[in-house]
Write a structure and sequence with these properties.
single chain, mainly alpha, 13 helices
Length: 320
């Protein structure tokens, strides 16, 4: 655990003054707090704050907003993409830290398995559908909440592209990997490994996707060195399906990866965004309908970005 100086304390106090979903992760990732206290704090996510509010928005049949990827009422024409449906809500509850064994989680997952159907062709929710970005996120939440998602993993392993990763447009003929799709699949495969144990095939696929990102220094084109998308340097939360370098770095941290020199430029970008008061701002809000706002306005100090940035830098600095 990184030894923190007194200058960090105001930031830590500010983080601890936030939602239980923030507090338990600060206690686990940034402070040397006994495990029992972390567990007790995490248990509050089910009953207090953002977690309780998302659970309260659940429909009687266990879905959110009546749909899998899109709300039942969605007809298009809205700014961005609605984020109120089941997939996005389950992912957010996972990130907040809803305990997989909690009564609310087990009830929700059982009902989603029974009633959830994908808009693509009516597939059962935990059978997945055709897009690897959706299937990666389904593996992530399914494995986390104790669902057998091995058949979706098998599909993803067979859909890896020749350049190392995945792309949701592969069914339309794309043969080039997408950063956004690949990070969703990597998150899913990592969670699947944690839930079921690593296998050579899954590990190899994950290493392949990681290498794709590393060869591009997490945000640059391999061919020209140009920035692929300026938004990859903008940190938003919740991230949903979208990629940015903070999400990628936090993935490598969670995966227990050794810091790689090819991450250094992304780390420099992360450090450069730290404000004089020690916090990070919210760079972006991904447009679309939400149950409620979790983060403040763009440009305001962000607890989620600050928490994630600090634990990434701890991981990076401790290992070097």
């Amino acid at each position: 655990m990184t030894r923190r100086d007194d200058g960090d304390q105001p930031v830590i106090d500010w983080l601890l003054d936030g939602d239980p979903a923030i507090r338990w992760q600060v206690m686990r990732d940034l402070l040397d707090v006994p495990a029992g206290e972390v567990i007790a704090e995490r248990a509050k996510v089910e009953h207090e704050g953002w977690g309780a509010r998302l659970l309260a928005a659940e429909d009687p049949d266990g879905l959110w907003a009546g749909g899998a990827c899109f709300p039942a009422s969605y007809r298009g024409g809205e700014p961005g993409q609605p984020w109120t449906a089941t997939m996005h809500t389950l992912q957010t509850l996972q990130i907040l830290g809803l305990e997989p064994g909690s009564e609310s989680a087990q009830r929700a997952v059982a009902l989603v398995a029974e009633h959830g159907r994908w808009e693509h062709d009516g597939q059962r929710y935990f059978d997945g559908e055709v897009e690897p970005c959706i299937n990666g996120r389904t593996v992530d939440t399914g494995a986390h909440f104790g669902v057998d998602v091995a058949p979706i993993v098998e599909r993803l392993l067979g859909e890896r592209l020749d350049d190392g990763g995945w792309n949701c447009d592969a069914e339309n003929g794309s043969v080039r990997t997408s950063f956004d799709t690949t990070i969703n699949v990597l998150d899913g495969l990592l969670e699947f490994e944690r839930a079921t144990g690593a296998t050579n095939r899954v590990r190899a696929a994950r290493r392949s996707g990681e290498e794709y990102l590393l060869e591009r220094r997490l945000f640059r084109r391999k061919s020209t060195g140009e920035i692929v998308e300026p938004r990859y340097l903008e940190f938003g939360f919740p991230h949903y399906w979208r990629y940015d370098i903070l999400r990628a770095l936090d993935y490598f941290r969670r995966a227990g990866a050794e810091p790689d020199p090819r991450m250094e430029e992304a780390i420099d970008v992360l450090r450069s965004k730290r404000q004089p008061d020690g916090r990070w701002l919210l760079d972006a809000i991904h447009p679309g309908r939400v149950h409620f706002d979790i983060e403040p306005d763009v440009g305001a100090p962000s607890r989620w970005n600050t928490l994630r940035a600090l634990r990434v830098l701890d991981w990076w600095d401790e290992a070097r």
